[in-house]
Amino acid sequence: MSSSENTDSFEAEVVVVGAGLSGLVAAAEAYNAGRSVLILDQEPEASLGGQAHWSFGGIFLVDSPEQRHLGVKDSAELALSDWLGSAAFDRVEDHWPREWARAYVAFAAGEKRAWLHSLGVRFFPLVQWAERGGYDAQGHCNSVPRFHVVWGTGPGILQPFLAKLAEGVDAGMVRYAFRHRATALLTAGPGTDAAGTGAAGAAGPHALPQSVEGTTDSVIGLSGDVLEPSDAVRGAPSSRTVVGTFTVRARAVIVTTGGIGGNHELVRRQWPGGKAPGYLLTGVPASVDGEFQFVVAKAGGSLINTDRMWHYPEGIHNFEPVWPNHGIRILSGPSPLWLDATGKRLPVPLFPGFDSQGALRHIVATGYTHSWFILNRTIINKEFALSGSEQNPDLTGKDLKLLAKRVLPGSIGPVQGFLDRGIDFLQAGTAAQLAAKMNALTGADLIDGEALHDLIAARDLQVRCGLGKDTQLNAIRSARRFATDKLMRVVPPHEMLAPEHGPLIAVRLSVLTRKSLGGIQTDLRSRVLAADGAPIAGLFAAGEAAGFGGGGVHGSRALEGTFLGGCLFSGRSAGRAAAAEVG
Ligand SMILES: Cc1cc2nc3c(=O)[nH]c(=O)nc-3n(C[C@H](O)[C@H](O)[C@H](O)COP(=O)(O)OP(=O)(O)OC[C@H]3O[C@@H](n4cnc5c(N)ncnc54)[C@H](O)[C@@H]3O)c2cc1C
Question: Is the pTM of this model over 0.70?
């Protein structure tokens, strides 16, 4: 690196923009292939690893030993059928996303687990069932449980790649540059070689080619701002004060800048149909700003499926926020009643954990910004989990003693903190008292206490009769046929109003922003494609910025655990392809 008058300039064979999981995987692959790598990130080193550090570490695997041990009969054929049923690809631009989907499912059913295992990644043996569905055989969701939680959660999946890159730093082949925010791609037109020695780069050894907007010429580097040093803790917003500029000359640029979930303005602008809820919680750090995707578009890269997003309706306010409006997602078992803001049950099959997008759409269409889970102490004890590494200290810390407590009655770990201190959690002895508290919380008399009591009592009558017509109760009974659910996720159906299961609990749920399903269009080698379908030389994209591959590998809906996996698969592909192109 050279530096003068607050201008840094770097050279590397491969530059990776964004030090989240996809960037780290891509960088590790390029280093493995013998390339010198520069990794840029706008955040301080404290936030290394991006969103993956915060993640629950759920990974989509197909026909794994863990599944087989639990008696689950999975196959690549079934997984692909589930994927395509959920994705519902229906656009011309879905060509590459569909190709990515096929390749990714084959990876998840093939070498993915063995590859991760060889890197030291291990899994919690009790596979979880995310997105249970409730539609027909060709509809959305998983037919079987596939959500494998990494032992060590998010930090556990980052660890091998960080270790590999630390080795590269020691070898002088890998460098990190934190507080470096990329703002432009440098391109060179025909007649310019990959090192940028043509007309655009002819003014001297460190002179750089000009940035050219709106072309599909070769990418030969990038430029940006150096931000002032920051002591912001992991995930907290950091200052955007610019103290200098930088340029990088590279033979390949890999864009791994993440999605848009931290940028509410963009989320609202791209919301399908334009009618985003009036109030949103934020489920990702503020660094997930989506800005760099537009830089790629300016350089000719094609952005597709930007209206496809994966936000959650089950968000609660974090009582210890790290980033502004910090929300946490409840991962609920199937027993709570899910009511809209006016106290009506959501339609079948929108039970907790069945079809989060379906529930989201339904709730948003009511015109209110919240909905409710109604449950009791028995249900919360067993069925409430929270997404995020910090909310699961047993799995994150690989603490077997703490983990054993999960199956003990009455021990609900971090959920207790929300019950005690979370503004969304209400408790009462009767439905009428609960309704009064719900109305007080929202400041509107939308919940009728008598109607709430009748609704729960009618459900309880169904429990008492043993058989019954209530689809949710039948779904609960069906879930308990699977060992993990029976052991740690689903309580036996019981009368919710029975005092021994009380108190009653209401949890106000708000919409929580999280993932982008669309993004930069790429081919199977992670090469960024222009609108005419031609690859842009020297430019690659992976992870959430690339819609986890192709510009939208999930189509309209995801099966869960597919995001970290998408970062692994597309990051690996980008790192390998960039290294090969450089060679
Ligand atoms: C709480 C939580 C739980 C989750 N749980 C799961 C789960 O269990 N399973 C699952 O599959 N997925 C899960 N996810 C989603 C998954 O973690 C993310 O989709 C994934 O980690 C995204 O990785 P990425 O590398 O694409 O982007 P990011 O992690 O967002 O990294 C992008 C990086 O790029 C940097 N950057 C952005 N713009 C610039 C720029 N212009 N210049 C320089 N740097 C820039 C950012 O600072 C950031 O460090 C979870 C996410 C969260 C937040």
Answer: yes
